[in-house]
Amino acid sequence: RSGGRPDAAKDVAAGGTLAAGSEPGPGPSPARKRKRKRDLSGRSPMERCCRRYLKVTEVCGQSWCELQVLYGFEYPLVLKAEKERAEVKAGASIHLAREREVHDVVQVCVVTREDRQAVKFLNLLGMISALQTGCCVRELPAIGMLEGVFMVGVIDELRYSDKGELVLNELKTRRHKSLPSEAQAKGHRLQVGLYKLLFDGMVRGSLSRDQVVEHLELRLERALGPGVLEHARNLGFRVAAFGDVLDLLLVNLKYCELPCIDLLRLEYCHQGSGDIVGSQDVPFDEDQLRAQLRHYLSFWFGQREPRGVDIEDAWKCRMCSYAEHCEWRRGSSQGSVTVHTDKKLK
Ligand code: SF4
């Protein structure tokens, strides 16, 4: 494998365990909201943030605070500092330790973006084979189009139950030995639901070459670097360019005959002791999930304003690294983040 967890900060994005700030204000009044500064360029947030795809954790972060997700793009150094926090690193090392239980983790030298993506796809190919033989896999890349947006994520674990059901198990690490609040759990449920949609889409063969190339902005003809070529050879694949790996993956997904995910489960583990705090099965209602997703995406399409937290959730602002910059929290009419456009990305 190419190293650590690609979205090591996902618990922060989805759960909002952010650094302490000062006391929150009441949030802007409706009149102030109307007055807030608008982006006159007419570009949607997706375009302003130069995004061709979204991470599942970014969308789930919206369920905690939409504005916080947007600030992550506007203040990248703050976000980087968040990822360096001991708590986030501890969570990432627990995930890596679990991954090592079922996979050999090897270092692969990558030079280009195509190399990096090729390694992820080679991993995925190995995981398809493992699932076909009934094995457990961890850190499975999941990608695909959902409601008009290309989305990427990493599934913590897939395994078969005693009854032969395919179970998605998402591990969340906890600083305290307690289950999360409803505000956090809401994002976690959304996350596993989106992973199911992505995985089910992949094994049903709905992922296309054009979607991957267009949204991840990769070049099919790009020759793979020597490190990736050697890694592919060791896995038994004969490839030369990125497009070879992508084609191999798409054919394997199309004919893999893997089942869709039957059960979604959240598992909470204490960071300090590694003890399991509890687990919860998550119901799956596709219509409801897609409606929720469309609501979150409408912000990225520029169809509505971003939202901060509701007054009853103002306690979240005390843990937010963007509190001192936050227009919503200050209730200011001079903010700089609000955008408005009715232009759709696609
Ligand atoms: Fe959201 Fe509060 Fe942070 Fe503002 S201060 S981004 S409203 S959590």
Q: Would you mind describing this structure in some detail?
A:
There is one protein chain. The chain has 346 residues and is an alpha/beta fold. The chain has one domain: Lambda Exonuclease, Chain A (Alpha-Beta Complex). The chain is built from 14 helices and six strands. It has helices at 10-15, 30-35, 45-48, 56-62, 66-74, 76-83, 86-102, 113-132, 182-203, 209-216, 226-235, 242-255, 286-300, 327-330, and strands spanning 53-55, 137-146, 149-160, 166-174, 263-270, 276-282. Strands 1, 2, 3, 4, 5 and 6 form a six-stranded mixed β-sheet that branches. α4 packs across α5 (66-74), α4 runs antiparallel to α9 and α8 runs parallel beside α12. It is globular and about 60 Å long. The structure holds iron/sulfur cluster. Residues 65, 67-68, 71, 308-309, 316-317, 320, 322-323, 326, 328-329 line the site of iron/sulfur cluster.
Provide a short characterization of the protein structure.
This protein has 14 helices and 6 strands.
What's the SSE blueprint?
Elements: H1 10-15, H2 30-35, H3 45-48, E1 53-55, H4 56-62, H5 66-74, H6 76-83, H7 86-102, H8 113-132, E2 137-146, E3 149-160, E4 166-174, H9 182-203, H10 209-216, H11 226-235, H12 242-255, E5 263-270, E6 276-282, H13 286-300, H14 327-330
Parallel strand pairs: 1-3, 4-5
Antiparallel strand pairs: 2-3, 3-4, 5-6
Helix pairs in contact: 4-5, 4-9, 5-6, 8-11, 8-12
Residues 65, 67-68, 71, 308-309, 316-317, 320, 322-323, 326, 328-329 line the site of iron/sulfur cluster (SF4).
